[in-house]
Amino acid sequence: MVDLTVDLGKFKIANPVMTASGTFGYGFEYKDYYDLRELGAVVVKGIAVKPSHGNPTPRVAEVAGGMLNAIGLQGPGVDKFLHGAEYMPFLRQSGATVIVNIWGKSIEEYCEVAARLDAESEGIAALEINISCPNVKEGGIAFGTDLKLAHKVVSEIRKVTSLPLITKLSPNVTCIADFARAVAAAGSDMVSLINTLTGMAINIETRRSYIANITGGLSGPAIKPVAVRMVYEVARAVEIPVIGMGGIMTGEDAVEFLLAGADAVAVGTAIFVDPYAPLKVIKGIQEYLERHGCKSVGEIVGAMEKP
Amino acid sequence: MKTGEIVSNRVLQDEYYEVKFYAPEICRKTRAGQFVHVKIENLKDRILRRPFSISDVSGDGVLTVVYKRVGKGTEALSTLPAGTVCNLLGPLGNPYSPPDNEEFPVIVAGGYGSAATYLIAKNSPGKGILLLGARSKNDLILIDKFTAAGFEVRTSTDDGSQGHKGFVTELVDRVIEENKDKKIRFYACGPTPMLLALAKMLQDRGCNDAELSLDHLMCCGVGACFACVVKVRADNEDGWRYARTCKEGPVFKASEVYTGE
Ligand SMILES: Cc1cc2nc3c(=O)[nH]c(=O)nc-3n(C[C@H](O)[C@H](O)[C@H](O)COP(=O)(O)OP(=O)(O)OC[C@H]3O[C@@H](n4cnc5c(N)ncnc54)[C@H](O)[C@@H]3O)c2cc1C
Ligand SMILES: Cc1cc2nc3c(=O)[nH]c(=O)nc-3n(C[C@H](O)[C@H](O)[C@H](O)COP(=O)(O)O)c2cc1C
Hints:
The structure holds 2 protein chains of 2 kinds. Chain A is of the alpha/beta class. Helix content of chain A is 30%, strand content 20%. Chain A has a single domain (6-54, 72-198, 219-300), classed as TIM Barrel (Alpha-Beta Barrel). In chain A, the strands form 4 sheets. Chain A has an 8-stranded parallel sheet with strand order 3-16-15-10-9-8-7-4, with helices on one face. Chain A is globular. Chain B has a 7-stranded mixed sheet with strand order 11-10-9-8-12-13-16, sandwiched between helices. A 4-stranded antiparallel sheet of chain B has the order 1-2-6-5. In chain B, strand 12 (183-189), helix 6 (192-204) and strand 13 (211-213) form a beta-alpha-beta unit. The N and C termini of chain B lie far apart (49 Å). The A-B interface holds A 22-25, 29-30, 45, 51, 53-54, 57-62, 64-67, 69, 71, 74, 220-221, 249, 269, 271-275 and B 39, 45-49, 87, 89, 216-217, 219-227, 229-230, 236, 238, 241-242, 247. Flavin mononucleotide binds next to strand 4 of chain A.
């Protein structure tokens, strides 16, 4: 028997597969498909202080091997998330391991959401800080692409909550390992990566961008090699657990991330193709471990051989 | 036969095709206005599903989709032979509420809208009218099926090649005028500009229980990704909010549709 549990330091998960934020709604949307406890963790779509409309439409475009999205973090706001039946109350009762992804337009906003969730933290395993949100007060620089701001936002959030913190790193930087080091130093308990890569697609007949926001985030199989490389770099740079994602469609894809140094993985865009994808990824990892005579997931984490 | 297996796939008319899938479970649950999310086999580097309204279902588990060839996905679908198995997710979305015995159903459809509303006509206790609009006469589809279901069909085309020359919404007032004595219930599906114009018209005429199927570029199909949103009226400072057409729609009441900027 293979032991699929993963110890992430601050908490354990039943298996190494989570859902990527923004691709699994609030879990509620998939409740009729399977028991959410079968997942390592459910990571919900980004939560902010206030409800938010998100971006104008069209918000997505399909491209070779993936998609671009500029949803713009449409969401219910933290009050409704904590008390609306289809959000946290549902998740608590589902028994799933829940990670709440948070975002803000300023450090104050990030801290406010974190504090609100901390105050009613029953059923919340961790917060995932999305620092790749493009609209920020400080001169329009994204927190995720400025080392000082990345450090600052995490250390400020650290002050207002005792919940485990996962910082979600942006791949739109030259050296992602520097960001991993910065947020680890600021008190992040883990890092997750990668968020989407900024991209564009133009309809040559209408000469307009396919996306109303003009640019969008690229996800899906197209970004997997970039994601694996970044996980490899980050895992070597920091001691804290690493959650890897970006284009995982199968168990084999997930194993690549584990070998590169991820302690756990998240499945995103693949869920749009097949709601059962996360379960298939779990099964694929298990089969791989059995085939290689491994007893636990930990045995293959960072176990990539030298060339 | 396997679930999702293509039973037949043929040209219906011009760029319109009709594909039949074996899908007994989906057929059993389907109500008018719902859709299936199809993973088109052989689509190579395009990975997302394609949503299609369920046009018809049969007692022996055959589900019909009528689709127009418009891009890579529908092109690939049009080449799939019988026997190909496609993964189907469904039925998804909220259905139309069917007309009751007293109601006189009037369906306003554009483009593939007649395919999306056919089940209303098929299951309607009383017979009604279909107002069908399209660019040109080659795009007017399923007239025979609606006629066979006992519906009167009136058409309009942009180029005047068949029926009224102009927009299908221009046929609405006469139907209201002619059927003053009846309790008309409007249903609609078609291109978004047409539906927005119609929603405004129906709101002005007090037909608030009319039901319109609004769709938008869809991704997950179950309400998780917030890609397919449209504006609906809301009790907030903007007067609107974005609603997910896959989960909160695709069928909305005319009174809910936001027709402002
Ligand atoms: C609820 C719903 C019901 C539908 N029912 C029907 C139907 O019964 N018959 C029919 O012919 N068409 C229907 N459509 C539209 C159909 O889904 C698109 O025409 C189809 O996805 C186009 O795919 P493509 O790869 O050929 O085009 P491409 O333009 O190459 O597709 C690229 C992307 O755009 C999306 N897309 C393109 N046009 C539309 C559109 N109008 N609506 C939604 N997504 C779109 C595709 O899903 C894909 O992700 C429906 C759409 C929705 C949302
Ligand atoms: C439609 C969509 C919405 C997303 N929303 C969020 C979000 O709200 N917060 C966040 O941190 N990441 C968000 N992401 C990024 C994903 O969580 C993930 O990092 C990225 O898509 C790469 O993984 P994938 O290729 O498996 O999808 C979103 C991605 C997609 C496709």
